[in-house]
Amino acid sequence: MNEPEWLAERFEEHRPHLRAVGYRMLGSLSEADDAVQDAWLRVSRAGTGGVENLGGWLTTVVARVCLNMLRSREHRREEPIDVQMPGTVIGREFGGDPEQEALTADSVGVALLVVLDTLTPAERLAFVLHDMFAVPFEEIAPMIERSPAATRQLASRARRRVKGVAPAPDADLSRRRRVVDAFLAATRGGDLEALVALLHPDVVLRADRAVVPTPEPIVVRGAHSVGKGAMAAMERAWSTGTALVDGAVGLVMAPRGRLRLVLSFTITEDGITEIDVIAEPDRLGRIDLAVLDV
Predict the structure, then answer these.
(1) Secondary structure class of 206 (helix, strand, coil)
(2) What is the spatial distance between Cα 139 and Cα 149, in angstroms, rounded to a whole number?
(3) Which residue in 47, 101, 206, 267 has the fewest CB atoms around it within 10 Å?
């Protein structure tokens, strides 16, 4: 076996790991695959050059590609994604299998991807490589042109952002999460009956003007009407996950890891009584989001 064939075989062995690095760095399966492919083109041209730790070296190459993509993303304003609500019809905002994207996002945590997207590229790289893949700070530092000590500080700052502000003690936090998880599962599964059962008969849903372009915010009342609206947004539920929203259990919609919409719930013993759907950028920017761990 010659060196190009050997390298191609070894690269394929490491591809799942490299894809996992790319996904956590970029929040998108398609972009992760692009980053891995770009890394392969670089590696195949450069050769190994006597590299002793091939896996570590390939991780570094993919990380550098992802860092460049994140920096490019910072300078590019993406077109806003329409959000599906009652009375609207829209297509998919990205190709591929939404269920596969959702399964991958769920395995990592949609909230984590959202919080990671608020970090600077250097913070994200330091946190992802060190905290998720145990890459030493001494190896990360040259990628972002910082000292190991400064890189450690970046990762620490990112870690605090991921954990967020601890929610106020609430014995019902786990119960509330079960309700929100059930709401998401019913929406994904198109189970209107199960969804309506979670809602108070007089539930009120409010959606700001960025959710659906209208002169005034939308208000929907009644369990059946709110449930039908959620069913209309079923496809969007594949890019949605639970999170801490201002210290309470809520949902965040984040296609490709980019926050687009937040659902805030008021939950009582009688079910979900209020749902606030937030998509206006200035309102999203004021929300404290963190990873939910209960």
Answers:
(1) strand
(2) 12
(3) 47
